[in-house]
Specification:
With 211 residues, this protein is an all-alpha fold. The protein has 4 helices and no strands. The chain has helices at 3-23, 28-40, 42-82, 89-202. This is Endoplasmic reticulum protein. It comes from Auriscalpium vulgare.
Amino acid sequence: MTIYYTLTFMLLAAEMGTFCVFVAPLPFQIRRKLFHFLSESPLIAKIAYGLKISFIFIAILFVDALQRMFRVTAEVEVAKSGGQGVQDVRTETSFAARKFYAQRNTYLTGFCLFLSLVLTRTFYIIQDLIHTQEEYAKLKKNTADSSRSDLVAGDQQKEIEQLKRKLATKEQEARDFETLKKQASQQAAEYDRLAEQYNKETGKVSDKRVD
């Protein structure tokens, strides 16, 4: 395998490893920190830019490998149909090897390009999922805080109502006391009047007063 196909294979292996990390059941906090680092790190941005250029060259290799595979396949079909070299084992082996290498290179570069698209889409999907989970956590926290506030407000309202009822009871008791006091004063005045009248009629003098 030539050096550029070896590098393509190494890149494909790295993509497979990265994909396994993306889909691994990691805890939410670790996943969030990982994707925040991947999306905000300047170093990762430079690496991603270099990979985009690499994928352009891999796409060129894919087109070249695809054309070579079609050409080798056509040559094998022509050789079989024309009967040229079919009986020669070495020629047949050579055609089979060329066809195998062409197919291998095509599949290698094709899967590398396909997996790059899958990785990109998976990255953005998981990033959106993390953002949605963060928004949900904030909304849940705000809802819980507002619920506690409503609960406290409800308790305060109950206390206010109880205080209002107690105040009304006290005011009623105060009014009853004032009424009773007036009645007592009136009765005392009436008693004094009757006592004076009795003293006048009987000729007796009395210093007794009802306070």
